[in-house]
Design brief:
Blueprint (H helix, E strand, L loop, with lengths): L4 H18 L22 E11 L11 H17 L4 E11 L5 H17 L3 E9 L5 E11 L14 E5 L4 H10 L6 H8 L5 H9 L5 E4 L4 H12 L2 E5 L7 H9 L4 H6 L6 E5 L14 E8 L3 E5 L18
Bound molecules: adenosine-5'-diphosphate and magnesium ion.
Adenosine-5'-diphosphate binds next to helix 1, strand 2 and strand 3.
């Protein structure tokens, strides 16, 4: 702990403010304020835990996003990992490395956004850590969730003949990012998909509870990369129909101008949609009509991922998924 008295006061004041704002979730017997939070364990439940790091300059740029939206997104992308296992999010833990340039009202906006998204999914902020950063803004989020014992949907369960589905639409977030990079303004629908993605918690939960998915992942690095993880873990291949990719109206109109943009739907990333395999055909008619799912292909025996055009020719995507170390 620092010996600079004013810094200590500020940290404790911030934490007290966070504690007041966060309240505490019904599933916790002790929330923020002690060395640990306490969550009684439920019989018949598995505990899911996942962590993500978000670093300024790599995962986000402050000039493109408000701190409120950044707070929402930081919670959303973690909650999306719980959705991808078919679980329900419960507790989030938030580590903040804060550079001097970020003032109190900005940090409060960030926390407010984080809490807004967390509450939207019935979860609670249960703890964290706060310290100064000599460099960029750094955010570390850990999320915990629950799923019925043994019902979590992993990436290794796909088998030959399963249908491949994705939720929502693909490429919107990557298109918004591309436009921002070019100094252009994405329309409202695209901007929303980039700044405040919606983790598909209810869909993931329904698929797990009804045992409809054999393998599942959320799309953070792009469809091809993330579906590729399912195929590798399951030791199978896949055939995808290019024409079946679900695209939004905004994305389609951009695509009409430039056909190469289709690669953003295949490999753009940050969709935070679910990609999953299922032995059930015509799944869309059999689940809650609130959830949009589209079959984009089938699991094949031959290893590899093949994308076909309507004329039967193979399509070669010119873009690979996002990889931080490349
Ligand atoms: P410690 O010295 O044990 O790390 P802290 O003073 O850092 O304790 O934190 C006190 C309490 O405030 C703990 O319950 C901790 O989980 C919580 N806390 C600290 N920072 C944050 C944060 N950024 N978000 C949520 N809770 C936090
Ligand atoms: Mg601490």
């Amino acid at each position: 702990m620092s010996i600079d008295k004013t810094a200590i006061r500020e940290e404790f004041e911030l934490i007290r403010w966070i504690q007041q704002q966060a309240g505490h979730g019904d599933h916790l017997s002790l929330g923020i304020g002690d060395d640990c939070s306490i969550q009684p364990q439920l019989a018949g439940q598995d505990l899911l835990t996942s962590t993500d790091l978000l670093i300024e300059g790599i995962h986000f740029r402050r000039e493109w996003t408000s701190l409120f939206d950044l707070g929402r997104k930081s919670a959303a992308v973690n909650i999306s990992d719980i959705a991808a296992m078919g679980g329900r999010p419960q507790s989030l833990f938030l580590g903040i490395g804060r550079p001097k340039q970020i003032n109190d009202s900005e940090i409060e906006a960030f926390i407010s956004g984080f809490l807004t998204e967390t509450r939207l999914h019935g979860a609670a902020l249960a703890g964290g850590d706060s310290c100064a950063s000599p460099g960029p803004l750094m955010i570390s989020v850990t999320v915990q969730g629950g799923v019925a014992t043994g019902e979590a949907v992993c990436r290794h369960g796909a088998s030959y003949g399963d249908a491949i589905y994705v939720s929502g639409s693909l490429g919107d977030s990557a298109l918004a990012l591309k436009l921002l990079h070019n100094g252009q303004h994405p329309d409202e629908a695209l901007a929303k998909r980039f700044h405040t993605p919606s983790p598909r918690v209810a869909l993931g939960e329904e698929l797990a509870q009804r045992q409809l998915a054999t393998a599942m992942l959320d799309i953070s690095d792009g469809l091809l990369a993330d579906l590729g993880h399912i195929l590798a873990a399951s030791d199978v291949g896949a055939d995808i129909d290019l024409a079946k990719l679900p695209l939004s109206e905004s994305f389609r109109s951009a695509l009409d101008e430039d056909r190469r943009l289709i690669d953003l739907a295949l490999a753009g990333g940050e969709d935070y949609e679910l990609v999953f395999t299922s032995p059930v055909k015509e799944l869309a008619g059999q689940i809650d009509p609130e959830h949009t799912v589209t079959q984009i292909g089938v699991v094949g025996q031959e290893p590899g991922l093949r994308i076909r055009r309507t004329n039967g020719e193979f399509y070669q995507c010119q873009r690979s998924g996002f990889d931080h170390f490349v």
